[in-house]
Amino acid sequence: MSASDRLLRQAEQHLNAGRHREAHATLMSVLQTDAGNAGALHLMGVVFFETGALPQAAELFQEAARIEPGSTEHLMRLAATLIGMNQTAAARQVADRALALDPRDALTLDTLGVTYTRTGDYDKAVPLFERATALDPRRTAFLYNLGYGKQYVGDFQGAEEAYRRLLAIDPNFDKAYLALVEMTRQTPEANFIAPLKRLFAAARDPEQVLAIGHALAKTYEDLGEPEAALDWLEQAKAPRRRARPHSVAKDRDLFAAAADTYRGPEDDTGGFASDEPVLVVGLPRTGTTLVDRILSSHPQVVSAGELQNFPVLVKQMTATPGQALIDPDTLRAARRIDLFRLGADYVKSTRPLTGATARFVDKLPFNFFYAGLIRRALPEARIVCLRRDPTDSVLSNYRQMFAWDSPFHDYAYDLEDAARYYVAFDRLVAHWRRTMPADRFLEVSYDALVADQEAETRRLLAFCGLDWDDRCLAFHENTAGVSTASATQVRQPLYKSSVGRWRRYGPRMEAPAAILREAGLLGEG
Question: In the CATH scheme, what architecture does the domain 248-518 have?
Answer without folding.
Answer: 3-Layer(aba) Sandwich (3.40)
